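thread: overnight batch results

M.L. [08:02]
morning all. the overnight job finished for the chain we discussed friday. pasting input first so we're all looking at the same thing
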Amino acid sequence: MPSAKIYYDSDADLSLLRDKQIVFLGFGNQGAAQAQNLRDSGIMNDKILIANRADSYAKDAQSKGFIVEHDFEKAAIVADILFLLIPDQVQPNIFNEKFAPNLKPTATIVIASGYNVFFKRLSFSPQQDVVMVAPRMIGSSVRSLYQKGKGYPCFVSVEQDGTGSGLSIALALSRAIGATKAGAIASSAYEETAMDLLAEQALWPNIIMLFREAFSVLKEAGCSDEALCYEMWMSKEPAEIFERAAEDGFIGQLKHHSTVSQYGQLNGALALDGEPARAHFKDILYNQILNGKFAEHLSKIEPDLEKDGLQNPLNQLYAKAEETELVQAEKRVRGRLADLLQ
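M.L. [08:03]
and the structure it wrote out:
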C-alpha cells in the first residue's frame, strides 16, 4: 500500500472557519481541550457553543468562559460545524433524535471516532460534510501540547463530501486544534475503527491475560505479592518502556535495557510461533469487528450499561475480573501501603 498522506499547517486555511458557528456536543476530556485550542487559535468565543446537559461538564465549560446551551435542538439549529464528542454508545440516540432533524442541510459533522459512522448508526443529510478529526492523545495532552507549541498525532478523513469542501474544512479544524503542527495523517473511519477495536478486543485482552498467567506462575514459584506487583507494573516500568518505544522505536528501545534483558527479549520473541496469535487476531477482526457482530451485541445491551450495580453488564465483568489472583493480590499490597502511610 502507498504511504498515507500527511497534512501540515501549510495545507490548512484557518480563514475558512471565519464566521462559522461551531458547536461542541459534549465538554469532556476531548471537548474541553479542543474547544480551548480552537479559541486560542483565533476563533471568537461567541462563535463557539457548548451543547451539554446541565451537569459538572457544563459548569466546567462556563467556568472556562464558554457559552453553554442545554437545549440540544437550539444548538443544532445554529451549528455550521458540529463536533460530536460524546461517548460512542450514546451518540446515535442523541444525534439522530435531537440534532439530525434540526441541523442545516450543509452543516459539517466532525467525529473523533469512526465507530458509529463505519457501522452506519448515524443519520446524515446527503448535502452534509462528515469528517473525522481524531487526535490520538488523551484530551489533557491535546491541550498541554498545544499550549507548549507542540503537535500531536491525529487522523483526518472525509467520510461524506456533501458540499465538496469537506477536506478543506477538516484540515482547517485540524490546524485550529493544533493537530497539523506535527502532521495530521490521512485515514478513514474504517481504518480507525478496525485498529481501535482490534486493540481493545484482541491485543490488550491478550496482554491482560499474559500478565495474569505470568503472575500466577510466579506466585506458584514462591514470589511474594509485593515483589510481583512492583516488578510487573506498579513500578511503572512498562509505561516507561512504551514511552521509550515511542521515542526510539519499538525494538530500538531495547537498547536501554541490560544485555541479559535485550538477549532474552529478542531471542524469546523471535522463537515464538506467531501464527496462533495471528489467526486469533484475524478471527476477531473479521468475525467479530468488521462484520458488525460486536456492534450489534453492544447496541442490544446499551440500555443496561446505564444501570447501577450488577444489573450493568460492564460491572459484571469488573466483578469477575476482580476475583482473579492478580487483582486480589494487588488489593492486599495497596491495602498494606495505605496502612503504612497512615
